[in-house]
Queue: 2 jobs
Job 1
Amino acid sequence: MKTNYLMLHTITRVVSFIILSFSIFLFFAGHNNPGGGFIGGLMTASALLLLYVSFDIKKIRKVIPFNYPVIIAVGLLITIITGLNSLLFGDPFLTQYFEYYNVPILGEIELTTALPFDLGIYLVVVAIALLIILTIAEDDS
Amino acid sequence: MNNIVLLPVLIPFLVGVILILFRNQLPIQRFVSGVTTLGLVGISAYITYLIYQDGIITLELGNWPAPFGIVLVGDLFASIMVVFASIVAAACLFFAFQTLHPDREKYYFYPFFFFLLTGVNGSFLTGDIFNLFVFFEVMLISSFVLIVMGGTKYQLRESFKYVVISTFGSMFFVIAVALLYSVTGTLNYAHLAERVAEAAQQGQSGILTVIAILFLIVFGLKGALVPLHFWLPNAYFGPPTAIAALLGGLLTKVGVYSIMRTHTLIFTHNQDFTLTIILILAGLTMFFGVIGAVSKFDFKRILAIHIVSQVGYMIMGLGIGTTMAIAGSIYIITHNMIVKTALFLFCGATEKVTGTTNLKKMSGLLKTHPYLGWLFFVAAISLAGIPPLSGFFSKFALVLGGLEAERYFIVFVSLVVGLLTLFSMVKIFMYVFWGSPSLSPEEVKKTKVGKLLIPGIPLVIISILMGILAEPVYLLFEAAANQMLDPSIYINSVIKE
Amino acid sequence: MLQTVTTIVLIMMSISIFICFIRVVKGPTMSDRVVALDTIGINLIGFIGILMIIQKTVAYSEVILVIAIIAFIGSIAFAKFIEGGVVLDRDRR
């Protein structure tokens, strides 16, 4: 009997985007509220995992053609360079800076160096979670 | 503001991350990693010089003030350890260039090599006990990868045991940190030292002693003290020699370093009890380690078990607890890092020549490979403690310190163990290098060993120099020991009021 | 009044989670276990909602969403496992 995944595919196409937008919300909420790079990354990873579960690995690899170890390295590099940034100003490693800016449409926003740091963590978490799951999945059979 | 103390942690991490991107370009990986390790030796030596000149250097990460944020503290002991760890790492790396199979190299050997170095240097330099746990984990996870790399059946079986035991140890570590935090309410070394002294006066001495012993168990598991050493010989036998030399030279020393740091700085409230326990463990470790080495007939296994026996010497100085004994302890840790790595590298060269590590299957290498033979001989008698090499002076300081403190029994044990060490080294030398050559002349021509010896030669030279220049070297270590025995120097340089 | 009600509800939900747990351990078939696990997830969501009422806060709302998403993906993965025997297909034709 040939199984039919029509319902799963239809739901996945909608739900994965909801999860992705929620993960971006969590990522930006992270500075002063619960959230941040780690949990945002996990949510993104679970959205991508949903795609992997409902479609197959080969198809999604065509859609997301990234080499996960490289993403881990890039994420770590972003994190380290954010920390190194403070050496330029003569402060200790990992010192964080923030400033308030007025942007035309958004109004007053706060820009921090913690944001790129979190972005690095986000990339590392996404890549590691998917790398572990896919390695285990490809190991059997 | 002294960011220089961060460099031994940051540079290996950064380089390790960058090398992930160059997975398939082996020449780039080799060149970058070689330059980096040599640079690290220079930087750490410069840091040691600065600390020797100006006293302890601290760095408050993220500009958060000391008891609340994480601090990196470079005192003399820590920076000396960083220097020797860098030397050992450089030697192992240059040996790995020649012996490691390219498949292993491509499977992220160099990134994990540098992550291991990050963990080791971080454990030496950190001034926060939870941060120590983090760096321990960085180090352990990298060592898991390095030990299992290649994936032979033996490696998989033994490294699984190693992983389980290490994870168990880490669990105890977290429990001990939690207990310590619940009693004192802080995690900073310097702040802990103050709070522990206060809490001990308020009648909490008992629970603090329990925590001290818990930490001793945790670090003893990593540092291979005798009742907890069983994982070590098998785990270090499996991987290739370059990796075994790296792990044997660095990992146990981090455990020993942590024992010495916590028991000289933090848990000073009930030293009669804790130091006696350490002394008993030191005696057991020395004795059983060397007995294990005497009974084996395999080159690599003898060296691996010898690590255990040497760990006993290292904490014996701490157990005696006088300035001279602790200086001797530092002396023997550094001497052992150098010499043990050199011996492992020569073992690897022998394995490359003969294709085996079984002592009974080889003989007569002295005639065919004289340089290998004599270099091994120098390193071996240095380990056994023959003057004028570094092993002699380190044991001399320990024994003299023990006699001054009237700890006669442990001195006696250490002398007997020294004799047995000499015996097992001579056994290797006789089996491997004496007798009629086991290799035919064609086989000798095929295996060129000259290049393999290059990483080992600087180590042997350092060992000889540490023996000949014993006076200035000892004075440096004595300064480090004085710094350790007076916790107020450390506390005042971290918490500035 | 509200305090009493919420406390009683919390106790009942705990019992419900415990019963589901028994089903997870005992469950004669795989499907029973999966349904019970899913029910535990939903119970947890309700649990946290009631905690939010008790503590008069909205700080845990993200937690509810996260648990819901993870429970959803878990159920789908289990469902696929029961039907086809694999969770991640390498190449579906």
Job 2
Amino acid sequence: MPEATFLDATELVINMGPQHPSTHGVLRVILKLDGEKVNGTECVIGYLHRGVEKIGEHRTYQQFAPYVDRMDYVAAVSNGLGYCLAVEKLLNIEAPPRAQAVRVILTELNRIASHLLWLGTHALDIGAITPVFYCLREREEVLKIFENYCGARLTTHAFRIGGLQYETYDGFEEEVKKFCDWFIPKVDEYEELLTNNRIWVGRLKGVGILSADECKEYGVTGPVLRAAGVQWDLRKAQPYSGYEQYEFEIPIAENGDTYDRYTVRMEEMRQSTRIIRQAVDRIPSGPIMGKVPKVVKPPVGEAYVSIEAPKGELGYFIVSDNSTQPYRMRVRPPSFVNLQALDRMVRGGLVADVVAIIGTLDIVLGEVDR
Amino acid sequence: MADEQKPEGSATPPPTGGEAAKPAEPPAAAAPKPAAPKPAAAAHAAPPKPPAVMVTTPWESEITQLLKERFGGEITEFSTYLGQNFLVAKPDAAIPILETLKLELDFDYLVDVTAVDYPKRPERFDVVYILYSFARNERVRVKTMIPDGYTPATAVTVHLAANWLEREVFDMFGIQFAGHPDMRRILLPEEWQGYPLRKEYGILQQDDAWVRENMGIESGQ
């Protein structure tokens, strides 16, 4: 009997990406369709692979720091924080309190910027054109703060191993506070545009459901996990950089669908603002740089340190052989792991939902491919 | 960070044999691995040469208790470094250990699978599984040492998350996982020759033939 599965007339295989506006970068998804229904997908990734881990083995610890910004380039500050914490762990040192507070402020600002870019582009994918302009307008203010602080807007390289390179500029606190006051009403504004919008709700509710158990099974973290009802955030579970001092809530939702992931991220922006306000009110005085040897040579050993990046758990697993360069530099990227669940989420859905689901996963291909 | 650390000073006492079941002995036989270092510098002085191996402290808890009972000599080491717990197991035991950890000890989230290359060692690669338990809020690393060409069993049967992670390990190190549903390269092109994260692979090295054929240029550098 000749087998002719490839001639199955009901199944259509089409290619989405890598050059596609709604794949948010060079992601290629091969869709197996039955009419409008998605029977399965396959992700083809690696278009942006630059060998970051290999480069890490050939640079000194300090030299590698700017590279990490180029993985998740919309949340470069978070990448830098995770990296610095990992190397500090290996060196068994801690950044001084002042540096930690400034780190928290900048990281949370970056979380807001990252979520804003997500919201704008996600809404654009769904067909809501307006929010992206608002989101980029607000994000611009965050980037201005970064620019004033360290001269760079996107790939900031804001932190150094052991603390900070730069003292805050004059008026930093006021500017950040002003931003917070100005920003909160803006979130309400987005919500007015979207939250009860019939098209928005219709396109997102019940789409791409991923249950809590499935999230754990696939290793999915971040807002996607929280939208499935798991109240887990590394900032609370294993606080770093002084997060235990700040009061904030971990927003969760219960259905684990695309709409819930939207509400969770919206609330996260408010919570981030709350953290920033507390942190900026009590930045301790003191040095901004810890006692770090001129030549960073961590003792032989290994450590895994992870933080709650805007996309989920971002981890660094570093093996040191007591030389100036890491022996092994492993990055555990949230986007890469989260993207793996795409297939599970889109199966049985419609083609149009694929776009919504890729958007809601909030992946950055620079981080997926490294 | 929350987990506290123990610097220098408190090294593993060289195999005193006392410490429960059987660990301590086997790994020392191999090449440069944990077990028993110990430079004289007990007085916490920094300058005299730092130790050439990881200065770990033994790790004991109900988790190690249960695993020791269950796996005995299959697990050669339970250690803590910088407040982070890990165990070293024989390659064949890795997947049963992951399963026990998941089903009986709540380590239900496979954070990462990765490898480390030690070309000079007879067991060339470390395969590292990083696990987390939501219920315990605790992490564990499971490490195995495998020679080149050995095909460890896949962890996909226990954690679906291992699928892409193991594909990446294969892509970068050339470690094949037995029983993996889709053992192909993931980041590099499928026809690419060589495994970039192996130590002998140069930083500027590339698959010239592939680049010539597919990109029509001599070099990407």
